[in-house]
Write a structure and sequence with these properties.
The complex is a heterodimer of chains A (83) and B (157). By secondary structure, chain A is of the alpha+beta class. Chain A has helices at residues 14-24, 45-50, 68-81; strands spanning 2-5, 30-35, 38-41, 58-64. In chain A, a hairpin with a 2-residue loop joins strand 2 (30-35) and strand 3. In chain A, helix 1 (14-24) runs antiparallel to helix 3 (68-81). The longest helix of chain A is centred in the last third of the chain and has 14 residues, at 68-81. Chain A is globular, with a radius of gyration of 11 Å. Chain A starts with a strand and ends with a helix. In chain A, 39% of the residues are buried. Chain B is built from 2 helices and 14 strands. The longest helix of chain B has 6 residues, at 114-119. By secondary structure, chain B is mainly beta. Chain B has an 8-stranded antiparallel beta sheet with strand order 9-5-6-7-11-3-2-13, with no helix packed on it. Chain B has a 3-stranded antiparallel beta sheet with strand order 1-14-12, with no helix packed on it. In chain B, a hairpin with a 4-residue loop joins strand 6 and strand 7. Chain B is globular. Helices cover 6% and strands 41% of the residues of chain B. The chains are: A alpha+beta (83), B mainly beta (157).
Chain lengths: 83, 157
């Protein structure tokens, strides 16, 4: 599990959300993003954008599966680098 | 469910009045590269987003420039008004719907100030994307101009 506070001005909009979805395709793990108790499957762009994640939100990344650690690290990097 | 007995399809009406263009022509790699999915785009002449079909509002992004819809048949559609318009932080956009709202085809969803968006140096080209490609087999675009109330796309489920 990894936690991160969103610092990018535009939050998790289409561009970073699409990068997350594409990154998930490299892994077999089940990957979820959670905001304020709401969990969304990170493989679904609609679910990700539906969370309406904005600057200042705290997000929890959780993955389950043999490559869960790598998946969480990859998603974390994308969010950190998002603008 | 008598699936397979006849071809199920969803007919989509004009989401924005204007010119229909292909996703490849959208000036942003996220859409032209089909990273979010397949679909088409509109170069709008009118600043209104209409519901393309009967269904439900899944989400309205906080900056009101993107709207997620699920048709009655379950087809997920993302309407992303303009390119990089998230940076406008809601300015120039007005929403008439909230998540969970049931919508009918042709219903007004968003009001958009096209002139303002262009003044801010942003493209008003609006991709319409089917975000889950496991939900449909194919789709056809029926023409190159979008008039209000016109059926412009047929999606085969």
């Amino acid at each position: 599990m990894k936690k991160i506070v969103i610092t990018s001005e535009n939050g998790l909009h289409a561009r970073p959300a699409s990068l997350i979805v594409n990154a998930c395709n490299q892994f077999e793990a089940e990957i979820f993003l959670e905001k304020a108790g709401n969990k969304a499957n990170a493989r679904s762009i609609m679910n990700l954008m539906a969370m309406g994640i904005v600057k200042g939100d705290e997000i929890i990344i959780t993955a389950q599966g043999h490559d869960a650690d790598q998946a969480e690290a990859a998603i974390l990097t994308i969010i950190e680098e998002a603008s | 469910m008598l699936k397979g007995l006849f071809k199920k399809s969803v007919q989509l009406q004009t989401p924005m009045v204007g010119q229909i263009i292909s996703l490849e022509q959208v000036p942003d790699a996220v859409f032209s590269g089909k990273m979010i999915g397949e679909g088409f785009a509109i170069d709008p002449s009118e600043g209104v987003v209409y519901a393309p079909c009967e269904g439900e509002i899944v989400q309205v992004f906080p900056t009101k420039h993107a709207i997620g819809i699920r048709s009655n048949e379950g087809l997920e559609i993302l309407i992303h008004v303009g390119i990089d318009t998230v940076e406008l932080k809601g300015q120039g956009f007005e929403s008439f719907v909230t998540p969970g709202d049931k919508i009918s085809a042709g219903q007004k969803l968003l009001s958009v100030d096209l002139a303002f968006i262009k003044d801010q140096g942003k493209s008003t080209i609006t991709p319409i994307v089917f975000t889950d490609n496991s939900q449909y087999k194919s789709f056809n675009i029926l023409g190159d101009q979008c008039e209000n109330g016109q059926v412009i796309c047929k999606v085969i489920l």
